[in-house]
Amino acid sequence: MSSFDDTPAHDMRGDALLPSGFADLLPGEAEAEARGIACVMEAFSRHGYQRVRPPMLEFENALLNGAGSALQNQTFRLMDPNSHRMMALRPDMTTQIARIAQIRLQDAPRPLRLSYSGSCIVVGTPGRETDRQVSQAGIELIGPDSAIADAEVVALGAQALDELGIEDVSFDLSMPALALGIIDKAIPAKDRAALLHALDRKDAGAVAELGGSIADVLLTLLRAAGPADRALEILRGLDLSDAVRPHFERLVEAISALRARRPGIRLTVDPVEFRGWQYHTGLCVTVFAAGSREELGRGGRYLAGKEPACGLTLRPQALLRAAPLPPSRPRCYVPLDISAEALSGLHSQGFATVSALTQDASVAEEAQHLSCTHFWRDGATHAL
Amino acid sequence: MSSFDDTPAHDMRGDALLPSGFADLLPGEAEAEARGIACVMEAFSRHGYQRVRPPMLEFENALLNGAGSALQNQTFRLMDPNSHRMMALRPDMTTQIARIAQIRLQDAPRPLRLSYSGSCIVVGTPGRETDRQVSQAGIELIGPDSAIADAEVVALGAQALDELGIEDVSFDLSMPALALGIIDKAIPAKDRAALLHALDRKDAGAVAELGGSIADVLLTLLRAAGPADRALEILRGLDLSDAVRPHFERLVEAISALRARRPGIRLTVDPVEFRGWQYHTGLCVTVFAAGSREELGRGGRYLAGKEPACGLTLRPQALLRAAPLPPSRPRCYVPLDISAEALSGLHSQGFATVSALTQDASVAEEAQHLSCTHFWRDGATHAL
Questions:
Q1: DSSP string spanning A262-310?
Q2: I need a surface site. Which of A161, B113, B127, B139 has the fewest CB within 10 A?
Q3: Domains held by chain B: number
Q4: ipTM of the complex model
Q5: Looking at chain A from residue 56 to 95, which residues have their Cβ under 8 Å from any Cβ of chain B?
Q6: Do A154 and A171 belong to one domain?
Q7: Which residues pair with A53 in a beta bridge?
Q8: From the list B26, B99, B127, which residue is nearest A52 (CB)?
Q9: How many CB pairs under 8 A join A and B?
Q10: Which phi-psi region, left, alpha or beta, contains residue A107 (left: φ > 0; alpha: ψ -120 to 50)?
Q11: Model confidence over A200-219: pLDDT tens digits?
C-alpha cells in the first residue's frame, strides 16, 4: 500500500497522506488481517493460553524497564497532562505481559500461559520504509524452564501458522549463550565487539583473524549454520567446556521435544545468531516462510522479572503477506421488504446481505453496481 | 479494575501502576472484550459492512480536519522524527473512516458501507476517572441521505446488541436542527448561548425567562422528551415553520422505518439534546442499556467531506459491562504424550487443553492446581 498514486488530485490529498510506515487497510485486507489474528488467537486459546490486554501506553519507566530497555530508541514518548509524568507508546508487548505476570497475576498458578494481540508503535529509521505500526499476536509460557516448555511454544506457533494455511514454514533456532560462553572465556572484553560484529556478518575471514585461540571453533560454528540435523552433528564434534556444554544439550533436547510434538517441522540452527536477542537467556527462534525471507515472528527464552519465561510473537502483517487470502463472503443484494426469516436464512447460509435503501430499487442492476455476487427475488437467490 | 490493592508490596509496584484511564484486561475480561468485538463486527459484516483499518496515528492536520476539529483538546500530539511534522493519536475513528471514504475509496460504488474497530486515545480531564483508551466498533453508511439509511444504521446497532445478549436497550433519538432552527430564527445570536445552556440543563425556569417569543414552544419541546410516540404526539401539536417542519417529518419517517425493521425496538426522543453533536446534520442517536445510564454507543448523520453519511459507534468497554459474560471454555489437563488425534478430538468438543510439561506429572493434582475443569486419563475426559 503506497500513497494515493491511483487517485485523482483532490483538495484533501496533501493533508490525507499518512506518515511513512502507517497505512490504511482497505476492505479485503482489513478483513483478512482480522481473520488472521482471530485464527491465531483461537489456536492459542485452544491450547490453554489465556488472553490479556495491556494498554497502548504506560508510564515510560514501567514500559522501558528491564527487557524493555533494549527498545528505548524505538519508543515514542508523550507527556501526561494529568499526572505530569512521561508516558510511552508501547514498541512491543512482551514487557507488558511480563509485568502483568509478575504483578497482576503473581498469585496465579504456574505454569502461566498467556496470549495477547495488539498494535505497537515504533519510531523507525528515517529513510527506511518499514512498518511503524506493527501488529503482534503472541504467547508467553511463564514459570517452567525446560526444553519441553521451549518446544511447546515453538510447536504452538507452528500449529497456528498451519491453521492459517501458511505452508513451508521454517523455524531458525539459535542459542546465543553457547557461542557467547565460548567467546567470553577466551577473548578479552575489549576485543569482543569486533568479533561479534564479524560473526554477525558471517565474515569468516574476519572471524579467523579476530578469533585468536578459538578461531577454529568459531569457524566451525559458522559452518554449522543450516538444517538442524547437520548442525547438531557438527556441534557434537566440538570439544565444549563444562560451562557451555549444557547449552548445546538443551538445544538437542528442545529439538527432540519439538520433533516429538510436530514430526514434520522444518528446523534450521544458526549457532552464531545474536542480533535482536539482547534480553534472551536460552533458546531463540525466528520464523520464516520458505518463499520469502520475511520474518513471520520471533521469540525465545528470557526472564520475566526473576521468573523463567518463553514466548513467541507472530507478526500479523507478515502473516497476511504469506497466507492465502481467505475466500470472501458471497454478497446477496436484498429488497427493503425482505422478511426477517429470509434474511436470517441467507446469513446462516454464509451470505452477507446488502439491503436496498428504496422500495423501488432495480434489484439486479443495483446488485451489480454494488459488486454483489447474488440478488434475492421471488424468495430465492440468483447468482450474477 | 482499580490499582493493585489486593497484591502485596513489590519492588516494581510503583513503576507498574498505570496512568489513570489506562487498564490491563486480565484473563476472562480480555477474552470477553475480544469476543464481544468479534460478535459485533460479525453482525456488521453479515449486513454487508466491509471492514477497514486506519492507523493509530496520522499527521495532526489530517486527523483534526473538519469533523475531527471538535476533538482538538482531547488529542495527544507527538513529533515524527522522520518527517519533522506533528502527528496525533486518534481520539476517534469516524474522521478516519470519512477520509478513507473520500480519498482511498472515492471510486467505490455508493451506498458505501464500512465497518471498523480499534482503540482510540483521549487526553481526558484531570481528576475525572474515565477511560482514556477507548475501544470503538462501528459502522458508516456513506452516500444516501434518507430516513431509511438512518434507520438501517440504528437497526443494525440494535441487532448487534441483541446478538451480544444485551437486553432492554433503549435508543434515544434527537434532531438538533429542529430546535436550533426554531431558536436561530427567533433569538438574536448574542442571546443564544445562554438559552442553549438552559436547554442543556433542562432548566424550565431559565428557558421561560430567556426564550422570548418562543418560550412556550421551547417549554413544549422540553416537556416532549420521553417515549417516542408521546414525543411525536406533542411535537405534532406545534405550529412549525416551513423551515423546520422537514426536520420533524424526517424524524417521524426515520422512526417509522426503524419500527418496520425492528418492531420491538425501544425508542425515546429528546428534542432538546445538542451536547456532543457538534458536527451532526440530521438524526442523532445515543444508545443506553436500560439497567444503567451508561452510554453503549452513539451516532448520527453528518457530512463526510461533501457526502451525506450516517454512522454509529459502539463502545466495547461499556458493552462488556452490560453484556452477560460469555461462558468460558472448559479446560482439560492432558498428559505430555497424548496423541494428536485425541488432542484435536478434545478441541473439536470445545475444550481448551492444558498440556503437562513433564512425563510424570500427577495429572489430577496438576489439573486442579491449574484451575482445569477436566483431565484426560485412559483415553477419556474426567470432570473435576
A1: -TT-EEEE-TT--TT-TTEEEEEEEEEESSS--EEEEEEEEEETTEEEE
A2: B127
A3: 3
A4: 0.92
A5: 56-59, 61-62, 65, 76-78, 80-83, 85, 87, 89
A6: yes
A7: B25
A8: B26
A9: 253
A10: alpha
A11: 999 999 999 999 999 999 99
